Amino acid sequence: MSFEVKMDIYEGPIGLLLSLIQGQDLDVYQLSISKLVSDYLVEIERRKAIDLEVATEFLLVAATLLEIKCRRLFPNLTALDDEEEIAFFEERDLLLARLLECKTYRDVSLVIASLLEVGGRRRSRDAGFGIELSHLVADPLGKVSPDKLALVYREVVSRQPKESLGPIHVTPLPKVSVAQARDKILARLTLKKEVPFDELIEFSSHRIEIVVMFLGLLELFKLGKIEISQEGSSSPILLSARLLV
């Protein structure tokens, strides 16, 4: 449903402006944009909902009218009469082009909606061809027997180059224990009052060493031998020896 304009010089759907301007039956410069916007806001409040197509059409017309009027407020004083007349027609053509574009998209959307509605009522044929038409359906395999298919398959497979796997080198995992990790942490804390966890794993060459070091950290904390602190989620984890009272 199109937005209805009610003014002294025009009353009707906003989409009808296109035909009126084309027929030069309406002077677009006499339209009050402020009243147009006010009436539209009142209509939205009354409907309690915004129709996307109506809003798009309204904004397109209002924005184009506003642009044309702004140009008229700052005319080129040095322009000749012919140039002013050309500018007038350019502005009118701009509005016509935008209105035609809006109308085109709206008409296309109606066509697509109609096609979707018609297509939704159609159903594909689930059953196959009837027996009386079976002789018309081409057999993709023809007279190829299963034995012949197996023979062709073996020939194709035999032509494929055989990949030879070279010796697989497996890197041995480092031998590190949780007890060793605990001792390393305590030894470091005897030298420094506070140690970042990143410093403990700085020279770890394997992920398993980092995991074991973290387990040693948790075990020392559980035993009450160290304190763990962190100011923020992205801040470093700091370890310090717990003072025995």
TrEMBL record:
GO terms for biological process: chromosome segregation. InterPro entries: ScpA. It holds the Pfam family SMC_ScpA. Keywords: Chromosome partition. This is Segregation and condensation protein A. It comes from Acidithrix ferrooxidans. The gene is scpA4.
